[in-house]
Write a structure and sequence with these properties.
alpha/beta, 8-stranded parallel barrel, single chain, binds SN-glycerol-3-phosphate, 8 strands, 11 helices
């Protein structure tokens, strides 16, 4: 499974990139707003750090506005993937952009039928928000499994980009189901590497090493 980092914080992206585990980046308007910078400047800097798909979201919601904005966002850098909301006009935009060779990430997916339509419209990625489904006491992981089955049944090329990941268990379950990508906060990437037995084992090794004579 590819690992994307879900943040607009370039310091976090640099840190995770240095570990060699980041395949791409996803952003959304809420994350970019936290930086106090323009969307374009943040995306251009991210593209200098990570050589992989970088998702940038359109802010319009009407057909013409989304199309105009998406075509502009796609010019920011060759690695930019344009994030389009999963609404009926958004699907029209996805079909047009796909026909023009512009990559898309269809965001705010909460049901298998939405995911099916995004794939039929030609989306490069579908972003099911599994944590937000869990938040309302439904089962976000069930959606990941449903999308995997539907896409495999019919040979859709759209990649499942599991989003709204909140903890390592989400990551493991997505990988077992066969999500193509998991996008997660910097904190979760660090949690993936953490284990109390690793820390305890290292502390013991260091304590014992102190007893080793120098020569
Ligand atoms: O970027 C989209 C998604 O990953 C947002 O996650 O935690 O705000 O539900 P969250």
């Amino acid at each position: 499974m590819k690992i994307f980092i879900d943040t607009a914080d370039v310091a976090e992206i640099r840190d995770a990139a240095a570990m060699g585990v980041v395949d791409g980046v996803t952003t959304n308007p809420s994350l970019v707003a936290q930086t106090g910078r323009s969307y374009r400047s943040v995306i251009e800097e991210i593209c200098e750090i990570i050589d992989g798909p970088i998702s940038a979201e359109v802010l319009s919601t009407d057909l013409e506005g989304m199309l105009k904005e998406a075509r502009d966002v796609a010019t920011w850098h060759p690695n930019v993937v344009v994030k389009i909301p999963l609404i009926p006009d958004g699907l029209k935009v996805v079909r047009t952009l796909t026909d023009e060779g512009i990559k898309t990430n269809v965001t705010l997916c909460f049901s298998p039928t939405q995911g099916m339509l995004a794939a039929k419209a030609g989306a490069t990625y579908i972003s099911p928000f599994l944590g937000r489904i869990d938040d309302i006491s439904w089962d976000g992981m069930e959606l990941i499994g449903q999308l995997r089955t539907i896409y495999d049944n019919y040979g859709f090329d759209t990649q499942i980009l599991a989003a709204s990941i909140r903890h390592p268990k989400h990551v493991v379950e997505c990988a077992l189901i066969g999500a193509d990508v998991g996008t997660m906060p910097h904190k979760v990437i660090l949690q993936l590497a953490k284990h109390p037995l690793t820390d305890a084992g290292l502390a013991k090794f260091l304590a014992d090493a102190a007893k080793i004579p120098p020569t």
